[in-house]
Amino acid sequence: MRRNLIYRGFRALAAIALTPAVFAFMAATTVARAADYSGALFDAHLHYNEEAWNGRSGPHPIADVLARMQRNGVKAIVANSRPNEGTRALAEAREETGGAGVTVVPFVRLYRNRADYDNWFRDESIYQMVQAELARGTAAGPYRGLGEFHLYDSANANGPVAKKLMALAEEKNLVVLAHVDDLAIDLLMANTPSKGRKARLIWAHTGIGGASPVRVNELLAKYPLLMGELSYRPGLTCPNDKAGEKLCPDWRALLLKYPTRFMIGSDTWVNQRWQQYDELMQGYRRWLGELPPDIAHNIAWGNGASLFGLKQPEP
Length: 315
Ligand SMILES: [Zn+2]
Fold this sequence. Notes:
- The protein has 315 residues and is of the alpha/beta class.
- Helices cover 43% and strands 14% of the residues.
- It is built from 13 helices and 10 strands.
- It has an 8-stranded parallel sheet.
- The chain is globular and about 55 Å long.
- Bound molecules: zinc ion (ZN).
């Protein structure tokens, strides 16, 4: 789509007589455009699901997904998958991930299959599966978190297994990746021993339903360790005057106010997202380039690296 827009842009320009005034305008806009962010990326929301490959067959074997990460400067990933075999396969590919310069941060997913999406919060066998998976660990080290999980009805945050898992996460210092609405953030936090003060929760999409920036601000202020992951976030970018995208003003203000609380992610929940991986990462690099360099680096890499204690990657 972007190529088409650029092509149309050139055609439109070609139709304009190139007077000195037009040249001056073009030079000014070139100078004014911020450079894209060019440093390391931490993909904080990545799935390696069964249909992508799962260690046997599929269109995106490990060499393929690692090549996509490497050519986009992705140096670390939060890896989770339905079922957990995909994450374990990535974790076991030590030589390949090392060669691509990608650190795998494994999470236990709560889904063995699609039916678990709607039932995990009350299914005791999911709790047992999580316990067994945590005990087993991965070739890339212990699991560091739980999720991504979904709550399509926020009241299910009070399901018996959801409550136990939130308590377990805090007790074991695991990070939780949750695709939920703003009401469920409050409910999940209330189910932790610290009532949310010590809960390390990544809010997938920072509210895919479009919780207002005022409400996001309120939750970030209330829960000191709450992080926001920005894939699919409605209202994050707005059209600019050159048929492209820029950060919307209220979101730019939030990112500047909370420079240590946001992260980017691919959310490769279907194979189409693997096919779009280059564009997704290029899209992040464009708006990150609008921010002061230290804040761009935090959101791109530093906040995820701090959360999981990773070192700065080799340049
Ligand atoms: Zn996801």
